[in-house]
Amino acid sequence: MCTRPGHLGRHHVCLECRAAFKHRLHEPRTRVCPNCAGKLIDTGSDLEVPRRGDDAGWRVLGVLLRAGVTFHSTCCDGPGWRPRTMAQVKERLTAAERTGTLVAEALTTFDIDEIGRGPARGVAPTGT
């Protein structure tokens, strides 16, 4: 049984301003950045927002969001594995190009050797 609260808001991110805002789930409208008036990206409730000065963290987040990868989850398990460094992103982009796998699938596959071999695993093995 899931004990996660159902009233958590979702993060909405502006990549241009490096800003994140949290909004309630019950407000389904298009969000705009209060700083630049650009469209905010709904990233889900499980995003760990990088600090504004974390260039590498924002680059990784930008690659993920542009590929359509978000941080939505349905229960306590979270959204699954996501790369945290540019080295992990580059490995997966290279593997996706080599195997013809969708970029979003490659970016959410924990084991790089599994890219192109079937559905994305998305969850890191226990003990890592």
Rg calculated over all Cα atoms: 16 Å
The helical percent reads 10-25%
The helix-and-strand class reads: alpha+beta
How is the largest sheet built, in terms of strand order? 2-1-3
Number-wise, the strands total 3
Compute the separation of the termini in Å. Answer: 25 Å
Which spans of ≥5 residues are poorly predicted at pLDDT below 50?
A: 120-128
**Average of per-residue pLDDT values:** 83
Percent of sequence in beta strands = 5-15%
Which descriptor suits the 3D outline? globular
Number of helices: 3
Give, in order, the helices and strands.
EEEHHH
Taking the sheet with the most strands, its summary is: 3 strands, antiparallel
Explained architecture:
The structure is a single chain. 24% of the residues lie in helices and 11% in strands. The relative contact order is 0.13. The chain starts with 9 loop residues before the first strand and ends in a 21-residue tail after the last helix. With 128 residues, the chain is α+β, with helices and mostly antiparallel strands. The chain has a 3-stranded antiparallel β-sheet, with no helix packed on it.
